[in-house]
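Q: what sequence does this backbone want?
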């Protein structure tokens, strides 16, 4: 199985790299171009192309700079 990576972009979308299938609540599959190396999923909630990002986060003032918690040292 190929590896999937999800990257959080500061003040922007979730960038998903690798082969994925996105399914809505009714079981319908979103069409994704198989030649695209990555897709961007909206985090701001304002995209007109949800669940995909359309860049609206830049205009709506969306702010997020989440960081992973470092592992605890013993």
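A:
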């Amino acid at each position: 199985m190929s590896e999937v990576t999800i990257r959080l972009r500061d003040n922007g979308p979730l960038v998903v790299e690798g082969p994925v299938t996105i399914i809505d609540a009714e079981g319908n599959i979103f069409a994704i171009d198989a030649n695209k190396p990555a897709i961007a999923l909206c985090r701001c909630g304002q995209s007109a192309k949800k669940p995909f990002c359309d860049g609206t986060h830049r205009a709506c003032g969306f702010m997020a700079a989440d960081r992973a918690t470092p592992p605890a040292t013993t």
